Protein: 3'-5' exoribonuclease domain-containing protein
Organism: Streptomyces toxytricini
Amino acid sequence: MAARTARPSLYISVDIEADGPIPGPYSMISFGAAVAGRQDGEAYTPADPELQNFYRELRPISDTFDPEALAVSGLDRDRLLREGADPGAAMDAFRAWVREVAADAGAQPVMCGYPASYDWTFLYWYLMRFGGGSPFGHSGCLDMKTLYAVKARVPLRAAVKGRMPYGLRSRRRHTHHALDDAVEQAELLSNLMLWPGPGAAPAAAP
């Protein structure tokens, strides 16, 4: 039997802001996404994350929220209740955007985050709860924290941005605006993908 040929992957950096720790009782109030790059076999090609991106602010889905979690994003919950996008419409638009950029790249979409666990939990729950499923499937996510830990050969708990080689980190500030942070993390992903590992100078994405 011939070996199955793996399709290329299109990595999409996603950052979400929420008003609590888990979806359902709490709400995702904004999310941003940016195309980070394409991998075909061993070759990784970075993208400019400012060229293909997506952002929405969402209407909360419950009355429950954690004031400390809400304060992180700086978003006004009362304004979101009046003006935030309907979650179903936002998920439909996001699915369409993901499928379009993936088709243009001739690749399968993969969500990536730092760390992916929190963002993926909310994003996947919303995609499944509101409409037509996940364009990433049930497991199409990459955790940048794990990627760095494996490449740097450090324990996962030591895989923090502050301990990374300076050249790996994006020059952008982490603002807790979901699109800003998705773009920042897209640059980090590309730097990590191109990094040979400890002892080699980080090769910043062009």
In short: The helical segments are 67-73, 77-83, 87-105, 116-129, 144-152, 178-194. Residues 87-105 form the longest helix (19 residues). The first strand starts at residue 9 and ends at 18. The chain has six helices and six strands.
